[in-house]
Amino acid sequence: MPAAAPVKIHYAREAGVEVEEFRRVLVESGLGAIRPVGDAARLATMLANSNVIVTARRDDAQGTLVGVLRGMTDQAWCCYVSDLAVATSAQGLGVGQGLLAEARRQLGPQVSIILVSVPEAVGFYRRAGLEDLPNAFWIRRMR
Question: What is the 3-state secondary structure (H, E, C) of 16-49?
Fold first, then answer.
């Protein structure tokens, strides 16, 4: 039996990601448990106010969204990544690393990429070459 063809993924910076496809990837990635996936208006606001959205889409007739990196940047110093989500069906294919690499390519080497990881993903980020920051701080949202 011949080996299966590798899955082709296209990475791009997109401004018009649909709320429903964003919600689907959040849910399928597991991040839906800690994101407001039941509040379409809030998801729409999250997308509208992000100036960096990098997508990973399957090379199929629908261009199915399988991964998304969402963040904010000043284009000169840093980019804060709010979401890095990969659908379960695409995990293990290098999509998360591909999203980070495309963000780096789009932003350039002068921009730091910063994110807060869920505990389950810390190992992934370490393997991807991100450094731990022991001196990061935050004020939690109230809802």
Answer: CCCHHHHHHHHHHHCHHHCCCCCCHHHHHHHHHC
